[in-house]
Amino acid sequence: MSWEPQPDGLSQIITLLKQSQSKDNMVQRAVQLKLEELNQYPDFNNYLIYVLTKLTSENEPTRSLSGLILKNNIRIHGAQLQPGILEYIKQECLLALSDPSPLIRATAGILITTIANTGGLQNWPELLPTLCDMLDSQDYIVCEGAFGALQKICEDAADTLDSNALNRPLNIMIPKFLQFFRHSSPSIRSYAIACINQFIVHRTQALMVNIDTFIENLFHISSDDDREVRKNVCRSLVMLLEVRIDRLTPHMNNIIEYMLVQTQDSDETSLNACEFWLSLAEKSICKEVLTPHLARLVPVLVRGMKYSEIDIMVLKGDVEEDEMIPDREEDIKPRFHKSRTITQKHSAGAGASSSDSAVRSMEENDDDDDIDDPYVDMNDDSNPSDWNLRKCSAATLDLLANVYKDEFLPILLPILKETLFHEEWLVKESGILALGAIAEGCMTGMVPHLPELIPYLIVCLSDKKALVRSITCWTLSRYAHWVVSQPHDQYLKPLMKELLKRILDANKRVQEAACSAFATLEEEACTELVPYLGFILDTLMFAFRKYQYKNLLILYDAIGTLADSVGHHLNKPEYINILMPPLFEKWNSLKDEDKDLFPLLECLSSVATALHSGFLPYSEVVYRRCISLIQQTLIQDVASTTNPTQFEQPDKDFMVVALDLLSGVAEGLDCYIESLVSSSNIMHLLYQCMQDSMPEVRQSSFALLGDLTKACFQHVHPHIADFLPILAHNLNPEYISVCNNATWAIGEISIKLMEDTKPYIPLVLGPLIEIINNTSTTKTLLENTAITIGRLGLVCPVEVAPSLQQFVRQWCASLRNIRDNEEKDSAFRGMCQMITVNPVGVVPDFIFFCDAAASWMTPQKDLHEMLQKILHGFKMQVGEENWSRFVEQFPPQLSERLAVMYSI
After folding, report:
1. Tens digit of pLDDT for each residue in 842-880?
2. Which end of the chain is more exposed for a tag (fewer CB within 10 A), N or C?
3. Contacts 24+ apart (CB under 8 A), 281-287
4. Is the whole-model pTM more than 0.85?
5. Are the CB atoms for 90 and 132 separated by under 8 Å?
6. What is the DSSP string of 241-308?
């Protein structure tokens, strides 16, 4: 296609492009409107590609901007472009890959990738062959331009390139890329590795058949003079460690030596190399291959943990007092409400210690709750999600400490001694970070040193440098468990006093770190903090009036965690008078549509649960507002579904936080909530929420249903026939937390319904048995499923007992580590009832039942008798000789525990 622009049109577009580079917001808005208007003319895009590729009289930024506007047009309106215009753009883009300007070549590469992504590579069949032919050009610029485009395509379309739909072009492309590893140009060598790197993690077949050639070529250029090449080599080796460690193992010694050098490089290569150690620390071969090099690696990691000059500039590390400087919006990371998930408390007592592989039916899975990475979230960066050498080095040290345990200390302690007490604050700060990083792995070996180190760290909380005070808060939180286990006067009281001072620090980063550390201390100390509650509350509520927005969110967490940790001890008039007025001042200042309500409502949920009847004066206003938030959201949802062009979809998080706060109020007030429930339409709202399309809404509504069942079942009872089929429908482990809460609610309802649960047993028992037998079910869901099955067996033993053999082993294994409580009690009573109805069902797995019975610390007298009767009955039935042979399979601890508890 041949096309020539009109001079007037071209002049108008050049003017617009130049105006769009203005810093004036009004000018930019006017340009944006004009560009949108021009989009209605088909040949507008021809002008844009012409400016990018042909108008060499214009400066490069203006030409590149023209290409980027065209990219957005193709992304948004690509499907409506006339075929002739699109062909013209494609042809011009390919020609522009040989432009002398690197910026224009890069822009053309972005355009090509956008066209390929929007229309699909299959609709541009000549693209990949053309680019691969261009690689063979004798003109370096053409080769580099083609490689730039190919790298973007490999990055964006890795899966498509390996598909049958395109006849697997990678079978040709990967061998071709490998030929360029030894090219004379470092830029082209770097592109070649970067292209192949896109296919390592996916174990793409075309790469796997060439893996040895790839690794051989990597080793050949590993010591390349060009940093970008070495950086890409490091990336390759890190990914190969994940997917083809078998191919690296024979060369591991040389690779480790190479990575030791690269980790000490002065630029981004060091981070890519450091990620190798992070990955290696998680591999089973780590100890075997790394031990000879450990003494050289550890000092390198600790040096990598020191702030660079650039870090200090970015962090404004020289600004000590900034509490009066307003928070910038971009510094506040998005905060997501975590819906209420019902979990069981675990026992660390004697009952849990009879664990042995002989009595475990399956590996315990981790809970589905996400655990924050302490190094991604460390309070030492203006943007906590920025991954850097410091954080990578600290995370690696942490993992290695967990691999080597106390064997790590002979190497590390001399380094710590040197850094922790160093005169230069930057070195001292990195030493304090290192001390925190090893806390989990080396705790046993560190204990003898803590009586000296903890007081030193408490002194460091008053250091004149804010970054030292900040990291000291974090490190002390890592040793909070040990601090709490010691006499209070020695460590806990001085630590608490200094941490509370730091909560009121004049530096915002220190405030944040102190609040987070104090929340950890609260979780560890629990009711040990009760004697100091007045002092703690005074400080937290003073901070409440002092903090700016970002740290206020963390303070809400600290207040909520305090309430969770001390529970009903908070229910004293003097504490309520300190705590509630500031919270309600904030409550009254926030509008219903304000997202700042989320953290406040979360905090109040914990407070309401802890205060019990102490929350009564505030309960009605909280209850009514929550009902209103749920109602408003449901009305908006119906409006947006019925008329999507006129009404926006609501933010359903308002509904989720309101449901969760009502759960907290119901749990705290218990039967006192009855009058509020009776005068509202909450059951109707709950019925709607339980069927919402958003999993988090269903999850929170099931938690509230369970709490209302416990608090005022008389209002739930009339709706059971509507509610239970919905709960049964949600017994789907694909949505773990939804399924978990539905399971728990079924158990709570069954305890109240008693024998009237019978009609619903066929509806729920099958899915529950399926869940408990699924090897990928998480620990939390397993525990709640086992409790609910036990409760169903308690109220309807005749209906549930015939299925006993299908779940008894998994049931026992799931509940053995649960702390003694009411839920465990009812579940075990149910199991005893089922065994009485169907004793044969437990026989093949009786060892698991013995282990579960031994997990009790202090069962109720009648439950103890039930368990003892079953154990002795089994012994009598099999006879002394068979019983002796059976007991020989037991771990020694289990035999001792059963003898002590049940005289058997």
Report:
1. 999 999 999 999 999 999 999 999 999 999 999 998 888
2. N
3. 281/396, 281/399, 281/400, 281/402, 281/403, 282/399, 283/241, 283/245, 285/245, 285/249, 285/252, 286/400, 286/403, 287/403, 287/404
4. no
5. no
6. HHH-HHHHGGGHHHHHHHHHHHHT-SSTHHHHHHHHHHHHTTSTTHHHHHGGGHHHHHHHHHHHTSPP
